[in-house]
Amino acid sequence: GRDSSTHIAPAFIDARAYRAHAHAYCEMIAFAAPSTRRPASRGRASDGEATKARVRRAAVLRPRAAAAPSSATRGDGTRAAAVTREQCVEFIRSGCKPKSAFRIGTEHEKFGFDAETKRRMDYDVVNHILTGLVDRHGWKPIMEKENIIGCTASKQSVTLEPGGQFELSGAPLETLHETRDEVKWHLETTSALALEKNHKFLGLGFDPKWAVNDVPMMPKGRYKIMRAYMPKKGTRGLDMMFRTCTIQVNLDFESEIDMIRKFRTSLALQPLATALFANSAFVDGVDTGYQSMRSDVWRDTDNDRTGTLAWVFEDDFGFEKYADYVMNVPMYFVYRNGTYVDVSGESWHDFMAGEVAQPPGGKP
Question: N or C: which end of the chain has fewer CB within 10 A?
Fold first, then answer.
């Protein structure tokens, strides 16, 4: 119910007491409950019928949970040697740090658009903004072949999502006040550079007007692989890539117990955060009746790597179980000699054993 968030504290003490509420949170995250939808608007334009039909279909989808960790197996059914499992677990464990070293890392995405035509920002304007950060503000460029695809400065970076959504990956900062100042400088600076090309930025969770095919794709090799692979795994992957934006926060932990508490609490609070900041009601120029269409997109994107991790609330959750989950997620690509090699759908365990044919050079 609406007061289920009051059960967060017991999760710190006993996973069993909390597990019963995990399924309720899964339902809330899916935004299937009537209280999370707005009444549909009357008198919608006739050209929005396709969008309304898709929304109706989405509304009856069952909430999906990401797959739980499983034993690593090769394609022939034999178990692959987890040659680096211990290193992966230790890598996660190495993130533990004292509270005095805790920092906040913010990721901030937004859409760029032409102020006159309202069309999404193309790469020429993206290039102008990134080059302006480099030439006028001393940032260092990030290049992929001949194209600038991002830049860095003072532990910050600006990178591009598939459809040109601008993303600030903020520096690790001590306070929310520092985060605010960082984001404020970023928005003011990038907005001024965009305005030189008569473009502006828009902070919404979902593109309210343009279809996937109307959005220019950025010149990043991995996005070509993802664009081809995503439709094989769900119906909303391309929407996620090209038509969504978000704000995320990265937090430190001091121990495995601390990580577990923060992980569970973050998942439990996600429906509340989605509801508080929902601002993506429009798709293809039509009012969908949803408060957060961006949230709905994640219900059918790629169930191998997205969804509600219900097993996080199990008693045995910790560094090892999370490492097992990550190692069993199918691969997208291998980066070799400046090129993204398509290994989408392949097993990471097979790759580590040198049994994936696509990337040259045998074992990694």
Answer: N
pTM reported for the whole predicted model = 0.80
What are the pLDDT digits (tens) for 235-268?
999 999 999 999 999 999 999 999 999 999 999 9
- The closest of 288, 345, 308 to 52, measured between CA atoms, is 288
- Look at residues 308, 230, 266, 314 and name the one whose alpha carbon lies nearest to residue 31: 308
Structure tokens that stand for 341 in this block: 């090699």
Phi, psi dihedral angles at 210 (to 5 degrees): -95, 145
- Residue 101 makes CB contacts below 8 A (sequence gap 6+) with 252
Surface-to-core class of residue 198, CB atoms within 10 Å of its CB (0-12 exposed, 13-18 middle, 19+ buried): exposed
Residue type, 234: G
The two three-digit tokens of residue 202, written as one number: 């828009």
d(CA 112, CA 248): 19
pLDDT tens column, 122-145: 999 999 999 999 999 999 999 999
